[in-house]
Amino acid sequence: MAKNLTRRDFLKHTGQASIAGALYLSNPGIIYGNQSKKSRVVLIRHKDVLDDNGQPRKAILADMLDEAVSTLLQESDIQKAWQQIIKPDDVVGIKTNVWHLLPTPPMLNDLLTERVQQSGVTENQIGVKDRGLLSDAIFKKASALINVRPMRTHDWSGVGSLIKNYIMFVEKPYAYHDDSCADLASIWHLPHVKGKTRLNILVMLTPLFHGVGPHHFNPKYVWQYDGLLVGMDPVAVDAMGVRILQAKRKAYFGEDRPINPPPKHIRMADERHHLGTADPAKIDLIYRGWAEDRYI
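Given the sequence above, the corresponding structure tokens read:
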């Protein structure tokens, strides 16, 4: 598919009807038109989002991002949808992930920066960073955060999740490693973080579904899923990401092989820290785009 894919072309190719699954997590600060308290999570995929070198095609990735946000907020006007998330007077920190073996795609960081600017925020009020947040001028005064990272298995916490992505907001990240990082969600209640996250994007373009040992990475356990999971509730989004990884593991190994260690921090984020919901019965999962081998 051509790189200058238009929005009409994208919608034509991804025009399969949305399928609302029975899955939930309370969305912080958002009540949808049907007054449901369920958390809405959008799974969007496109089989041509990556080129032959495994790099994202900007036009397709941009349309995936916009379609996910539009669907999430039930606003067909893309500009208005983004303006619900970001206001012109915001100072915006985009919390990315730079792990060199599977980083947040720089192109996605760039697209998010563009969308924030198009919402009226000036360039000097936007920061994109992973480490060193506590001393960064933008993140120190940020009024809004966008959380974006790839999904992967992780030796300490079971998975590298959206919840875990905020571990750089504390001075001593190692203090949160006990009990399979069970209390990572407590970071989200710290004064410099609480209530600031406007959007969570779990990158599922090429997730890592298995590994053994610290900082493990084996290309044979990475697969081209070509998707993004997007939502307001990080717990709900992470919970859906884990379900996809578990299903892939079962298909690959030919048996149920639970992630080890169990990603209990996601359940604890719900039950102990009340950050969101991990309960599938309380999540509305909405599908957009390519359906083959969706695993959920």
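The chain has a mean pLDDT of 89. Try to locate this feature in the token string yourself.
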